[in-house]
Specification:
Layout: H1 2-21, H2 27-35
Pfam families: FixQ
Keywords: Membrane, Transmembrane, Transmembrane helix
Protein name: Cytochrome c oxidase cbb3-type subunit 4
Length: 46
């Protein structure tokens, strides 16, 4: 019984995370995060 509850809980967390990430309001933050590796050239390394 307990392993089934844990599996159900983790499934709910996964689906909730997917719904949260695919909301339209999150797109600007995700676009900014996607550009972070490309922004390294803008910084001076001393």
């Amino acid at each position: 019984m307990v392993p089934g509850l844990i599996t159900a809980f983790l499934l709910v967390l996964f689906v909730g995370g997917c719904v949260w990430l695919w909301r339209p309001g999150v797109k600007p933050a995700m676009d900014a995060a996607a550009q972070m590796p490309l922004d390294d050239d803008k910084e001076e390394i001393a």
